[in-house]
Amino acid sequence: MDEAEEEACIDKIEEVKDITEQVDMAETFVKLGGLDCFIGLIRKRMLPSTLRASLATAFGSICQNHVKIQDSVYKASFIDMLYEELMSTLAGPWGAEADLLASKVRYTPLIYSV
User: How far apart are CA 23 and CA 2, in angstroms?
Assistant: First the structure.
């Protein structure tokens, strides 16, 4: 993958991130298997680390303010798996790790049961 293709992919990921800021669109994205797709791509170590980090950041953003999505992601242990994957393979000051960890911390079953 050359630099122009990588940049085009990152731009598309940013578009998805922007679209899924709306709760309905985020839920639809998840129902269509979008997060599963992101997970598969993040785990492909042959992809450039900047592309994988962009996917992880978008994943964290999609989960960030959506309780239903956080619940399903939390129950599937996706955040733990992705965090470990990123920490073991990405070098550099990526924001992706912070976004994923923030999504995990925000999900607290006790808060929603009170």
Answer: 34
Locate 24 and state its tokens.
Answer: 């309905």
Query: What's the confidence (pLDDT) of residue 104?
Result: 53
Tokens of 46: 């042959």
Closest C-alpha to 111, from 80, 74, 82: 74
Whether pLDDT at 25 is above 80? yes
d(CA 69, CA 64): 9
User: Rounded to 5 degrees, what are φ and ψ at 99?
Assistant: -65, -45
SS (H, E, C) 66-114: CHHHHHHHHHCCHHHHHHHHHHHHCCCCCCHHHHHHHHHHHCCHHHHHC
